[in-house]
Amino acid sequence: MAVAQPIMISMELAEFVAKIMLDAFDGVQGALRLQEERQVEMAAAASLDSEKFARLTVPDEELDRELAQLFPSGDPHQPHGLYVGAPYQPALKEGETESPPFRSLVGIQLERADYVQPRRSKSFVLAKPAVDKIRGAVHTRLGAEAQSILRSTLRRGVQRVIVDSGRVSARISLILQTATQPSPGGTVVVRTKDVRLLVRMVDDRAPQNQQLRVDSLSELEIRFKTVT
Fold first, then answer.
1. Those residues with Cβ within 8 angstroms of residue 37's Cβ, 6 or more apart along the chain or in another chain
2. Is 51 within 8 Å of 140 (Cβ atoms)?
3. Distance from first CA to last CA of the chain, Å, rounded?
4. Residue 74 confidence (pLDDT)
5. Nearest by Cα to 174 from 204, 151, 195
């Protein structure tokens, strides 16, 4: 199977330099535009309510890690202690301690409908309403913490990355192209205005392409500085 050779494009030196500078300009302008768009998105996210912000920014994996730290599971098959049917001890009498301590850790006071007592058991387990309440509260709290940091960042001012100078280096091959015409005496005359210096990028994947006539291999370095 024949291997396709890369297409080699030649252009005049002035055109080559202009292309590099134009691409550098487009890259800088594009980076600034994207930063402005990101700042607008941050401001919009900061104005959301905590619940909606949490839904958009806090993934389930992060929520489960937080729940595992708050409520470790005694069941090796459960990542944390918040699930339907998880053991729960409410503080029904004075002096009793809630376990897990949802009220002290999350600020959620469970109602009687949030936990059930299985038949022939003296213990209680969590029902789905309790799991949804606590999971939602922790989710919102994580979102509120992240949103608070975002708002503080916006109040201080979002830093932007700018480019004030740069350098572009390229390996190139130089090809001298001339337009010749014979003189009355039969000699070949080459006029300076008929000489074109063509530039081609060096391709390291096929540096030994024998079909290319190269007069010189060189390196081009362009230093630039931005002004306003």
1. none
2. yes
3. 54
4. 83
5. 195
Q: Where are the domains of the chain?
A: 11-35+164-225, 50-156
CA–CA dist 60, 159 (Å, integer): 30
Threshold 0.85, pTM exceeds:
no
167 within 8 A of 223, measured Cβ to Cβ: yes
Q: In what order do the strands lie in the sheet with 115-116?
A: 87-88, 124-126, 115-116
Phi, psi of 224 (to 5 degrees): -135, 160
pLDDT, averaged per 10 consecutive residues of the chain (228 residues), comes to 54 85 90 93 94 94 96 91 94 89 94 92 93 96 96 91 85 75 53 72 58 68 83
CA proximity to 125, closest of 96, 93, 83: 83
Q: For the chain, where are the alpha helices, taking DSSP H only?
A: 13-46, 50-57, 60-70, 102-106, 128-156
Supply the DSSP symbol for 89.
B
Q: What pLDDT was estimated at residue 179? A: 63
